[in-house]
Amino acid sequence: MSIESRRTPYDDEYETCLETRAKLLIYPGELHPDEITRRLGLVPTEANVAGKVRVNRLGREHVVKISGWFLSSEGHVESKELRRHLDWLLALLRPARAALLELQSMRGVTMGIDCVWTSRSGHGGPTLWPEQMHEMAALGLECSFDVYFFGDDQQ
């Protein structure tokens, strides 16, 4: 299949995008997040352990209610093209496919990819190619979007 047939080629400067990122979210149920790290052979960009005290960006302490293991493209991919962020994430996950599928079969474990896309000017939006959709399907991962549209006066 020719990439030239695509209506929307990659555009790292994506003029209508202010910011974007993709993140794998794993909520491991009764497993400790370190067990997710061990099974996947990947180091998370963030992990939370239920019962631990965390300090938020405002300096306030709170007790973590639900354990989580997260791998984010933020700070790793310098592009306003969501597909680049997904490609980065999926390339890391590809070798861990068997472990991801095994984790998905475990009671209490949930996971998916969360994408954030913020419009620069109140219009536009991200595009996915069949390649990203196929790869997410092969990894058994759902994909959700947080899309924000702001006008010029709201930035």
In short:
The protein is of the alpha+beta class and 155 residues long. The chain has helices spanning 33-40, 82-93, 97-104, 130-138, and strands at 17-27, 46-48, 53-55, 61-63, 68-72, 110-119, 143-149.
Q: Spans with pLDDT under 50 lasting ≥5 residues?
A: none
Q: How are helices and strands ordered from N to C?
A: EHEEEEHHEHE
User: Alpha-carbon distance between the termini?
Assistant: 40 Å
Mean pLDDT: 93
State which percent range the strand residues make up. Answer: 25-35%
Strand order of the biggest β-sheet: 2-5-1-6-7
* Secondary-structure-derived class: alpha+beta
Number of domains as seen in the coordinates: 1
The biggest beta sheet is recorded as: 5 strands, mixed
Q: What Rg do the Cα atoms give? A: 17 Å
Give the overall shape.
globular
The number of distinct helices, counting runs of at least 4 residues, comes to 4
Give the total of beta strands.
7
Helix content: 10-25%
Describe the structure.
- With 155 residues, the chain is α+β, with helices and mostly antiparallel strands.
- It has one domain (13-154).
- The chain has four helices and seven strands.
- The chain has a five-stranded mixed beta sheet with strand order 2-5-1-6-7. The protein has a two-stranded antiparallel sheet with strand order 3-4.
- Helix 4 (130-138) links the parallel strand 6 and strand 7.
- The protein is globular.
- The protein starts with 16 loop residues before the first strand and ends in a 6-residue tail after the last strand.
